[in-house]
Amino acid sequence: MSKLVGLYPGTFDPLTLGHVDIVERAVKLVDELVIGVAINRDKGPLFSLEERVGMVETEMARISKAAGTPISVKPFETLLMHFAEEVGANTIVRGLRAVSDFEYEFQMVGMNQALNDEIETVFLMADARYQSIASRLVKEIARLGGGIDSFVPDHVAAALLAKFNASKNKRP
C-alpha cells in the first residue's frame, strides 16, 4: 500500500488556532503532511512569505513531534494540483468553518478533479471553538489593539503585535 501524503494549503497570514486544529486532526489521517504556504500576491499579505513559513514551521515542529507524523512546510506559487503532484500528495486537506466555505470549496473540488482526478479532497469541519476565527479578522483585531491570544499561537500573537507596533512607530 502506498504512503498517504496529505497537503494542507493556505496563505496562513497569520496562522490561527483554527489552522492548528485542522493540522492536529489531519495528522491522524495521513502518513505525512505537507503544509503549502501560498504566495498569493493578490491577497496582499501582512507577513512576508519568509515570516509566514517561519511561523508555520515553529508550530508544525511541535505538532509533528507530538503526533509522530512528519510535517514539512513548503511555499508555492502555482496551481494547487501542480503543487500537490510535485510533493507527491494524494489528498488535499481543507478546513470548513461555515456553509459559505463549503460553497467555495465545492467549486474548487470540481475544478481540481478536472485537473487531476487521482487526488482526493478531504474536508475537516472546524472545531466549534474555532469556527469564527478568520486570519483577516485576527489582523483587524490586532491592528485595533484588541486581545488575540485566544485566536493564534503565542509566537504568532507576538509577531502580530510587533508588526503593528512597528507600523505605529513609522507614522508621521
How would you explain this protein's 3D organization?
Strands 3-2-1-4-5 form a five-stranded parallel β-sheet, with helices on both faces. The protein has helices at residues 17-26, 49-67, 80-87, 99-115, 135-143, 154-170, and strands spanning 5-10, 32-38, 71-76, 91-96, 120-125. The protein has one domain: Rossmann fold (3-Layer(aba) Sandwich). By secondary structure, it is α/β, with parallel strands linked by helices. The chain is built from six helices and five strands, in the order βαβαβαβαβαα. Helix content is 47%, strand content 18%.
Shape descriptor: globular
Considering the protein shown, what is the CATH homologous superfamily?
A: HUPs
What's the total count of β strands? 5
Gyration radius from CA atoms, angstroms: 16 Å
Which fold name fills CATH's third level, the topology?
Rossmann fold
State the strand order across the main sheet: 3-2-1-4-5
CATH architecture: 3-Layer(aba) Sandwich
Assembly type = single chain
Order of helices and strands: EHEHEHEHEHH
CATH class membership: Alpha Beta
Q: Topology, please?
A:
Layout: E1 5-10, H1 17-26, E2 32-38, H2 49-67, E3 71-76, H3 80-87, E4 91-96, H4 99-115, E5 120-125, H5 135-143, H6 154-170
Parallel strand pairs: 1-2, 1-4, 2-3, 4-5
